[in-house]
Amino acid sequence: AAIVPAWLASASVVYTVENGEDLRYRNVSEGYVVSPGFINGSSYPQNFSGSVKLVAWAPNKYIKLYFEDVDLDVSNYCSGDSLEIWEGRYVASDMAFTVCGRHRPRPWISADNTVEIRFNSDLMHEGRGFRIRYKATPVRGLCNYKTEYQCKNRQCVPISRKCDGVMDCADGSDELYCLTGAARAPAGNDNVPCGTPVYPPVTEPEDRVVGGQEAVPHSWPWQVSLSRPEFEVMGHFCGGSLVSPEWVLTAAHCLRGKKAKDVLVVLGMHNRLNVSDVITRGVDILVSHPNFKKSRRNYDVALLKLEVPVEFTDSIRPICLPTAKEEDLLTRGRCFAAGWGQTRGTGSSDRLKQAEMSELPFKKCLLLKVGSGDPEEQYTFCAGDRDGENGICTGDSGGPLVCSENGTSWTILGVANTAVMATEVGAICGGGSDSFWNRVAFHMPWIRRTMRAF
């Protein structure tokens, strides 16, 4: 006889999601929801769509979910296979978040007595599926409310640590609504110099890797991912650079149509599928350059102010902003772009990649330009890989071009623009595409003014 797994032996109720069905179960108290095939250890079917709605037995109850096992195919924005958690008892319910890959979210609790679990798969790969334990509870909290504080990201920290000037939540939310200014500038930041990684980057090219080579983890510690908050993983849409404990520099086109709540800043990340040790921050304000509207090409820069400043660590450090005389580092020094951008043939890269770049004749980028309006050399420069192997899609829109004369101290000189044929579409890259970069030195007066004003 087959051995029954321990969880199944003790389970009173197990609901399986069925294809084409929106199942609804009332008066639930506790049990499991699983993907088809999970119980007998087989993969879920392809081209599947179904949901299970759970309604707790009393209106004053909430439903707590524990993600005990998740193994789905992974894709950008979880557009292939996805597990979606929705809440709200009405038709216009809200999506709480989406999961794919093998990421197991922290426990989650609903806003009222109803939760819906939607599962979709595409025609590509499949995995083992998922097992979620649910439990109806009268307490709307994930932490022990007597002794613990619940962070925005659903972490629990000792209540004594709230507003003590130290960020205990990975998203800093324990220091968000505090009257003291202690948390505004973490104490350890003063003696951390900008532009100096603790883990030196590889600057000797290995073999020529199309689409760049994997970076040494945390060797570009100012590199951040701008992500869509509704995705627990795989929500990355643009790059950015940490320039101070509370400011990130990126491209204005990345923020088009977005409000502060639509952006989550992820810091200290190397592999997008492994987010267990990253730091995240919500955004307080988005400031795009005021001239961006009338000249998209020349003023494609923006600043994000973080809700709570970050503490510098071995994997999170700021990049140096340039002085006017450092502009010639472009020709004097060595320059690199990095990011999780598109890589030819593989969609996007899960690990941070880098590629060496050099300044190229401005005309070279103009020949490849798409869209209206010419970038001007005063505001932008053209850079790419002299061998034509690696394009900016190794990097990210909004990500930095950093240069160094000595290989130990780095300065940001460019912010990735999207003004070139291969980079506008994002996918035809990795095989050599030169790109326009906004000159950070030119925009320094605006950057300094903005950081002082808010």
UniProtKB/TrEMBL annotation:
<dbReference type="InterPro" id="IPR001314">
    <property type="entry name" value="Peptidase_S1A"/>
</dbReference>
<feature type="disulfide bond">
    <location>
        <begin position="163"/>
        <end position="178"/>
    </location>
</feature>
<dbReference type="InterPro" id="IPR018114">
    <property type="entry name" value="TRYPSIN_HIS"/>
</dbReference>
<protein>
    <submittedName>
        <fullName>Putative serine protease</fullName>
    </submittedName>
</protein>
<feature type="disulfide bond">
    <location>
        <begin position="151"/>
        <end position="169"/>
    </location>
</feature>
<keyword id="KW-0378">Hydrolase</keyword>
<keyword id="KW-0732">Signal</keyword>
<dbReference type="InterPro" id="IPR023415">
    <property type="entry name" value="LDLR_class-A_CS"/>
</dbReference>
<feature type="domain" description="CUB">
    <location>
        <begin position="19"/>
        <end position="137"/>
    </location>
</feature>
<keyword id="KW-1015">Disulfide bond</keyword>
<dbReference type="InterPro" id="IPR002172">
    <property type="entry name" value="LDrepeatLR_classA_rpt"/>
</dbReference>
<dbReference type="InterPro" id="IPR035914">
    <property type="entry name" value="Sperma_CUB_dom_sf"/>
</dbReference>
<dbReference type="Pfam" id="PF00089">
    <property type="entry name" value="Trypsin"/>
</dbReference>
<dbReference type="GO" id="GO:0004252">
    <property type="term" value="F:serine-type endopeptidase activity"/>
</dbReference>
<dbReference type="Pfam" id="PF00431">
    <property type="entry name" value="CUB"/>
</dbReference>
<dbReference type="InterPro" id="IPR036055">
    <property type="entry name" value="LDL_receptor-like_sf"/>
</dbReference>
<dbReference type="InterPro" id="IPR000859">
    <property type="entry name" value="CUB_dom"/>
</dbReference>
<dbReference type="InterPro" id="IPR001254">
    <property type="entry name" value="Trypsin_dom"/>
</dbReference>
<keyword id="KW-0865">Zymogen</keyword>
<dbReference type="Pfam" id="PF00057">
    <property type="entry name" value="Ldl_recept_a"/>
</dbReference>
<dbReference type="GO" id="GO:0006508">
    <property type="term" value="P:proteolysis"/>
</dbReference>
<dbReference type="InterPro" id="IPR009003">
    <property type="entry name" value="Peptidase_S1_PA"/>
</dbReference>
<feature type="domain" description="Peptidase S1">
    <location>
        <begin position="209"/>
        <end position="452"/>
    </location>
</feature>
<keyword id="KW-0964">Secreted</keyword>
<dbReference type="InterPro" id="IPR033116">
    <property type="entry name" value="TRYPSIN_SER"/>
</dbReference>
<dbReference type="GO" id="GO:0005576">
    <property type="term" value="C:extracellular region"/>
</dbReference>
<dbReference type="InterPro" id="IPR043504">
    <property type="entry name" value="Peptidase_S1_PA_chymotrypsin"/>
</dbReference>
<keyword id="KW-0645">Protease</keyword>
<keyword id="KW-0720">Serine protease</keyword>
